[in-house]
Fold:
Amino acid sequence: MPPFRLEAVSSSEYKLLTTATLDREVTASYSLSLVCVDLGSPPLTRSIDVEVFVLDDNDNDPVFVDGGAAKVVRQTEGNHVGAVITRVTAVDRDEGPNARLTYAIRPVRGTPDNVVEVLADSGDVVARARLDYETRREYR
Ligand SMILES: [Ca+2]
Ligand SMILES: [Ca+2]
Ligand SMILES: [Ca+2]
Structure:
């Protein structure tokens, strides 16, 4: 049953109301047929089609595709500067701007040292410096 009902405003006027909270991610649109019937014999009817489009609310957070809260990457030192080390990918169930994602690095502690950069649009993580095992073994 579509979550709508008619309520009489006057003897000749009705308004269409929702009977439940609409969720665009479950049902994005509804096709209804409103029927008007007279009390004659035989009764005559007329109907109109009504399309209800549910507009998006930004009610879903982005979710990383590989799920986990942490990602461990092992990269051999002596890398090429600018080479892709890894890629992060997230999805968002909303639509339009509410689902458009960009990526950025926020260091777990300390200040960013600009050794690793994530490309805002693609999620590619690239090295901005040649990594040296003897200088530093871990970046967070
Ligand atoms: Ca929703
Ligand atoms: Ca969203
Ligand atoms: Ca939504």
Summary: Residues 131 and 137 are 9 Å apart (CA to CA). The pocket of calcium ion (ligand 3) is lined by residues 24-25, 56-57, 59-60, 94 (CB under 6 Å). The beta strands are 4-10, 13-18, 29-37, 45-53, 63-64, 84-87, 90-91, 116-118, 124-127. The two ends are 51 Å apart (CA to CA).
